[in-house]
Amino acid sequence: MRRRDVLRAIAARVPAPDGADAVRVAVDGVDGSGKSVFADQLAGVLREQARPVVRASVDDFHHPRVQRYRRGRSSPSGFWLDSFDYDRLRHDLLDPLGPAGSRRYRTAVHPEYGATKAGLIRLTACLAGLPSTHGVRAACVVPDWIGLDRAHEQLAAMPAAERSAISPLIPPEDVVDAVLDLVRDDTRSGSVVELWGGERPHFVPSTQRRVR
């Protein structure tokens, strides 16, 4: 069965709303499994059926960096307990779209950051097939806080408690090396390289597959 047929079959199982109520559909899965691509494509199929869709992601409800990493950048407890602002997710998105909700919703708590990062990553995934069609490769590097002069000044101005929660700044030369590695490796079109201070680069291969 083609992917498009699968998406149509799943879309057919999304129930119609009862009166003015909205139908909330969640997509879950491990990191890198293709949740965002699947959700985007399912939303597209539903829109083709003239069904209104609000496409949102929990990634746009991250806590600020200081709160996310207060237990340490690699803390399992911190990842589980501090990554997302679930109160804002419920208040700004889920409750307004729930039964008897106001329908006055927001899809991001930090819209500028979330939209920029998500847009870059999804655009890169969508361009993964360019080598075969146009002879062009597309990939991107997504760094955390880069150790430029301004970053060092901002870090120095923070209270000690906040500084201790921040992962090490990324040396600018590490960003350059990551970009050059992508340029040299012609097998990584569509890949995203995540850079976190004090850690090795993490390559996220594209999960994008063309919908027919």
What descriptors fit this protein?
mainly alpha; 10 helices; three-stranded mixed sheet; disordered C terminus; 44% helix; flat; 5% strand; 212 residues
Description:
There is one protein chain. With 212 residues, this protein is mainly alpha-helical. The protein has helices at 3-12, 35-48, 65-68, 76-82, 86-94, 111-126, 130-134, 149-157, 160-165, 172-184, and strands at 140-143, 192-195, 202-204. Among the domains are: 1-55, no CATH class; 137-212, no CATH class. 44% of the residues lie in helices and 5% in strands. Strands 1-2-3 form a 3-stranded mixed β-sheet, with helices on both faces. The longest helix has 16 residues, at 111-126. The protein is flat, with a radius of gyration of 20 Å. The termini are close together.
Tell me the distance between the termini: 11 Å
- Order of strands in the sheet with the most strands? 1-2-3
- The SS-based structural class is mainly alpha
How many β strands by DSSP?
A: 3
Radius of gyration: 20 Å
Based on Cα principal axes, name the global outline. Answer: flat
Q: With helices defined by DSSP (H or I, 4 residues minimum), what is the helix count?
A: 10
Q: Assess the beta-strand content as a share of residues.
A: 5-15%
Q: Provide the helix percentage.
A: 40-55%
**Average pLDDT value?**
83
SSE order in H/E notation? HHHHHHHEHHHEE
Report low-confidence residues grouped into runs of 5 or more: 208-212
The biggest sheet, with number of strands, parallel, antiparallel or mixed sense and barrel status, is: 3 strands, mixed
